[in-house]
Design a protein that fits this description.
By secondary structure, the protein is of the alpha/beta class. It has six helices and 15 strands. It has four domains: about 70 residues, no CATH class; about 30 residues, no CATH class; about 55 residues, no CATH class; about 30 residues, no CATH class. The strands form five sheets. It has a six-stranded mixed β-sheet with strand order 1-2-3-5-7-8, covered by helices on one side. The longest helix is centred in the N-terminal third of the chain and has 17 residues. This is Zinc-binding domain-containing protein.
Length: about 250
């Protein structure tokens, strides 16, 4: 997310006082000089580590002295250049490349990548990513969504025993005790949609992370904006936007 972050390259989910982070995933809070690390919290000078907290000079989760670390890291980087990983599509991954797509833990169509960068099954497979054809089965339900109480005050604990039919996709879903407690605390009615449909509705309101060529609505200067030309929103260049506050 970038709070007080600098020199971050090909990394995901890093932030809060970070510097010189390369090819890292979900590593954050006061981290320095990390390469190829997953879930490295508060680490410094680590290479190829997973799930470490406040460790330094580690390679593959083993801690070394500063001198040992620097020497071994140099050997590993040299070997990555000479003997790079080659994926099933023949793509070469030397030192300096993020993890190969085929190492992803999730099928493309089950990840948020599908929301932001939709692709067909053929396109996904051509990239070397996985595709999941499994469809969640619909099960029998005990309560239709239009039979739900209008308010949470009318809802009894018996709702925890019901299997509810989603009003959009006809999937079945249940309400769990913790969710019911939260709905009561916030005075919200029982949802009529399954969790997946609710998630889809939230994502539909998000701005897709793409940039479009448009002209500033005030001075006609060409600009890049996340709002597509078909979006009726008014867009300004930096100068015109800042001028609104002077």
């Amino acid at each position: 997310w970038g709070n007080n972050a600098s020199l971050v390259y090909e990394s995901v989910g890093v932030g809060e006082n970070v510097n010189n982070i390369k090819f890292a995933y979900h590593s954050f809070t006061d981290i320095l000089n990390l390469e190829y690390c997953f879930w490295d919290i508060g680490g410094k000078n680590n290479f190829g580590c997973v799930n470490l907290k406040r460790k330094k000079y580690c390679i593959l989760n083993k801690e070394y002295t500063k001198e040992e670390y620097e020497k071994l890291r140099e050997i590993i980087v040299e070997d990555m250049e000479k003997n790079p990983y080659i994926d099933s599509k023949g793509r070469v991954y030397k030192y300096g490349e993020f993890f190969p797509l085929e190492m992803s833990l999730f099928p493309y169509n089950r990840s948020n990548a599908m929301r932001f960068f939709p692709k067909t099954k053929e396109q996904v497979l051509s990239l070397g990513c996985d595709w999941d054809d499994y469809e969640n089965p619909t099960t029998s339900f005990t309560l239709k969504s239009n039979e739900l109480p209008d308010t949470i005050k009318e809802t009894t604990d018996s709702i925890l025993d019901e299997i509810i039919e989603c009003e959009n996709c006809a999937r079945s879903f249940r309400i769990v005790k913790g969710e019911l407690g939260l709905l009561r605390k916030m005075d919200l009615p029982i949802p009529h949609e399954c969790p997946k449909c609710r998630e889809n509705r939230r994502f539909a309101r998000m701005t897709i992370p793409r940039l479009y060529h448009r002209d500033c609505n005030k001075c006609n200067k060409p600009i890049y904006t996340p709002y597509s030309p078909n979006d009726p929103k008014i867009v300004y260049c930096v100068e015109c936007y800042q001028g609104e506050f002077n």
